[in-house]
Amino acid sequence: MNKTAIKNFAIWARRELIEKVTKKAKIYGIEKDKEMKEMDTAHNGQVLTSDDKKARRILIEKIDKDGFDETIEEVAYTWFNRFIAIRFMEVNGYIPSHIRVFTSENNEFEPQILSEAIHIDLPGLDKSKVLELYNAGNKEEELFNYLFITQCNALNEVLPGMFQKLNDYTELLLPDGLLRDDSVIDVMISEIPEEDWKEQVQIIGWLYQYYNEEIKAEVINVTKRKNIEKKDIPAATQIFTTDWVVRYIVDNSLGKYWIERNPGSDLKEKLEFFIVPKNGEIEYIDEKIEPRDLRILDNCVGSGHFPLYEFDVLMEIYKECGYREREAAEYILRENLYGLDIDERARQLAYFSLMMKARSYSRRILNKGIEPHIYAIPDSNNIDRKYFEIFGNSLAVEEKEEARKSIEKLLATFKDGKNYGSILKVEKVDFELCRKYIEDMDGGQIDLFTYNFDEFQKEIKNIIDVTEVMTMKYDIVATNPPYLNRMNGQLNEYVNKNYRDYKTDLFSVFMYRNFDFCKPNGYSGFMTPNVWMFLKSYEELRKFIVENKSIDSLIQIAKGAFFQEATVDVIAFVFKNLTSNTPGKYIRLEEFKGGMEVQKEKVLEAIENPHCGYFYETNTDNFLKIPGMPIVYWASDSIIKDFEVGILMEEVLDVRQGLATADNNRFLRLWYEVEQEKSKFDSKNAEDLIESKKKWVPYNKGGQRRQWYGNYDYIVNWENDGVEIKNFKDSKGKLRSRPQNTGYYFKEAITWSDITSGKFAIRYRMPGGIHDVKGMSAFYTGKENLKYILGLMSTPIANHIFKMLNPTISLQVGDFKNFPVIKVDALMEKKVMNVSNENIYLSKQDWDMHETSWDFQKSPLLSNKVDGRVETAYESYKGEVNERFAKLKENEEELNRMFIEIYGLEDELTPEVSDRDITVAKIFDNKKDIDDEIKGNKYVMTREDVVKNFLSYFIGCAMGRYSLDEEGLVFAGGEFDLSKYTIFKADGDGILPITDQEYFEDDIVELFVKFLKITFGEEHLNENLDFIASELKGKKSDSSRERIRNYFLNDFYKDHCKIYQKLPIYWQYDSGNNDACRGLFYLHRYDKDMFARIRIKYIFEVQDRYKQDLVRVEDTIAKSSGSKKIELQKRADELKKKIIESQQFEEKVQHIADSYIEIDLDDGVKENYKIFKDVLAKI
């Protein structure tokens, strides 16, 4: 089946039909938001008949009631349903007349119904009209439309559930041009291969899903942060279940139910996805049943995928019991299959698909008058009670009163029924009495009421039928329920009242509800998201299942495999509706990445070979031994024992979430953005911070994967004990922030991020900061014990167990609390703590060698200076870094060995650590030297990185942020003191111009050369310049100084912004593409006169230099020739552009300079940068 072609057609067809139906409505003077007056003649000149006028009037009433867009949508999908239904029937030869409607017998777009028009005999066909149109010669389209509508109405006799009598207005809006090339019919025929329609009734389901795809996207996008309204629930939730998943669920519910009661049955040989235990032994039940006794329900039937396959399985059951296919088909429709849905469109297609399935087994079944038990759950809101008086005429008074009360009760139950669907709780009534009542009419009173009493009768019958279906018990309930956690107010209230413990998502409500539909020993099958197996919010559901039911089988589908159909990770499973000691059967496909076809093949492999390594068996009781009862069927006996003998983490440490500011942009900064005198990094407690009168403190916000130490990036405004955050409220006065667990603020901790899409990582957090709701933390008064837990949780055991407790990407506090801690003796505890302390030290060394650490001291090249060569300093530094990397890896592997043995997991884990998982730097000379084993490690560095970091350190010294006189951060706000810079003087105004020639005394390249002489001496100056330049981009012919100049001119600022997370501390003023005026200034040395100095001291100066250069170049041009002249002319052109650009830039700078703008560093880089965005480089 070509699903791509089906999808493309269905999506296009919806748009096309809506457009064509809208145009047709316009012909009759009906447009959105416009007055619709009476008319006698349509806009195309057609004189309206009385029937046309009546249809138009009903259409206007419909639009007034339901809305223009909704009505057009309804008409469009009505025609779409009929097009695809008739196409299926004609391809398979199921149309009673055996005459094709859309094509010739050769499948050409030459409707046989036209060529045979004068010979056709259809119910309701006006042959004289056919003859008139046929002989006219130019009314082919009008004839086709008439024959098509007549055929639809004729099919009402054999398929009333699909081809209801068309509303007059629907006929009025039949699209024009159906016989033209590129019409919906033409495209349907040409784009979807005829083979895809042949005996593959599933095509109807796929067409339905894809037709709704854009509606679904619109609903989800519009309501991304809103609750889904009743009318949008079908579009938001309907998913056509993958074929093999349906087969797995049915094979292991209906199929198993029959097989275990019929030991001699050959059915299992015909069920491809039937799973038997590893020992191959099926447990049989001593209970005799007949095929006609089986009842199967799909209460979210959609377009009927489950019943269609159930029909095939039931047919095999009937056949092995001696039934003929013809009679079996009737029994299956009459007695076995039941379906419910909230969407009438889906019901129609499910009904049609099921009837087509039956027709494939029985040629005469369409003439049997059989109505499958497929129903749309109704809304009773608009049912008019006035018709009650004409029913129950011949019943006794008591019976009539009882029947009426029962029906009134049902009407009350089904108010807004489509909002709730089959989770509605309904009560039995005397259904036969109610049917007698509604079928017993007083003919004499009918004229006293309006003409549509029959609609009332039909609606009441449907409610009675639906209620009866919802009060019956079934052997099998199999469905793909709606996935919906943003319920509208009414639905949310109903779920809270009736399914409080299972309310997290609508699918979990259905999981619970369907046990009520199921007989005590029956099976309930589903495809749902996998989250209910692990998340705390579904714990009550798991508890109910584990304690009262049993999981018979389950397939855990790999992450992302189902994304082509819906962006959700799914599982398929079958419950038995009673407790059982029989081990459940589980297939885990996590390791097999790929789409649903890949998953299918791996399932079949596991069924064929249960010892494949991903087929598991376990008793449901085992889930009770693990806190939270996650469905971790793959947990080994060793893991289960660890939980039994260990104590929970919550008994060892206090595990706490932290502050939720509700507005991080307002209250958080990266530590280097603000004036450092306002920050305090070592507060002992809240009182200590208050006494210091500081504003900013470290804020633990998770961050990228980092073990042992690090991720000290953020600070938070906690001035006056967080008074601003604690009083941060919305417009209605409701507190927005959540300053929770404040008693743990400023304490020493171990911390991790709740987002763990990679491997779990935990690190030590020094005292003095506040933890975030995402950067969760654990606390203990005894420091040593904290370090022991840090050592334990840094081993693969943590990741191994957490992936069981919660394999989603969000690791929660509760998951950490439930980790089993196995006690060890004092000697082992001390050994672990010693290794942990060393690892913290090593990781801190690594963190602090970067200038983004507030404990950065100086360039590591200066710390590793051996002689006067930068290269030897680099080699020494590389050796130090790589030795640290190796030692940390060695220590981690030692911890792994110890804890793997303690936890008895030698058969599941190995102590080896991949270089990719070590979270400190390792240096390679070049990118090509990086080993495959470490690729992907974000902490890998190259010689180029080291050189660029050294150049950044130079800029910091030139700006006065750092000094060669003393280590660490020297200036970041406050009063600038030049006396702190004696060895290498910081720039007097904190402005460094960057030009393509040496124009200024503080030329950046010459300043760097001076810096290099001071730090490494003059003896190896050129060698050092060459070494540095070799790691920078440039032409082969460029000198070292030219390469360095080019780096500062073009690339330094990009690197700086990357290192500082797009919140730079050195800002680059920039005139534009011609590099006329470019330079750096230090944010923390900014004052209101900064741009005045830039303008006067640098812009005017560089303009003069450009003009002088231009005069010299033009003089030389006059005396030159050949290539030299061309080169000079190019330079002259460049200078002219620079002069013009610098003049334009100077005007912008003057405007800012004249404004004397003050900034507040506390506002952060992002907000302050915006103020000067017209003269600064884009980030």
From TrEMBL:
What name does this protein carry? site-specific DNA-methyltransferase (adenine-specific)
GO biological processes: DNA modification; methylation
Q: What is its EC number?
A: 2.1.1.72
- Specify the Type II methyltransferase M.TaqI-like domain's residue ranges: 335-559
Tell me yes or no: is Methyltransferase among this UniProt entry's keywords.
yes
Example GO molecular function: site-specific DNA-methyltransferase (adenine-specific) activity
What NCBIfam families does the database record attribute to this sequence?
Answer: BREX_1_MTaseX (NF033452)
One matching Pfam family: Eco57I
Q: Which residues form a coiled coil?
A: 878-908
Domain of life of the organism encoding this protein: Bacteria
Q: Fetch the InterPro entries from UniProt.
A: BREX_1_PglX (IPR047939), DNA_methylase_N6_adenine_CS (IPR002052), MethylTrfase_TaqI-like_dom (IPR011639), N4_N6_ade-DNA_methylase (IPR050953), SAM-dependent_MTases_sf (IPR029063)
Catalytic activity as recorded in UniProt: a 2'-deoxyadenosine in DNA + S-adenosyl-L-methionine = an N(6)-methyl-2'-deoxyadenosine in DNA + S-adenosyl-L-homocysteine + H(+)
- Tell me the organism's taxonomic lineage: Bacteria, Bacillati, Bacillota, Tissierellia, Tissierellales
Q: Which PANTHER family match?
A: DNA METHYLTRANSFERASE A (PTHR33841:SF1), DNA METHYLTRANSFERASE YEEA-RELATED (PTHR33841)
Q: Which UniProt keywords apply?
A: Coiled coil, Methyltransferase, S-adenosyl-L-methionine, Transferase
Indicate yes or no for the key word S-adenosyl-L-methionine.
yes
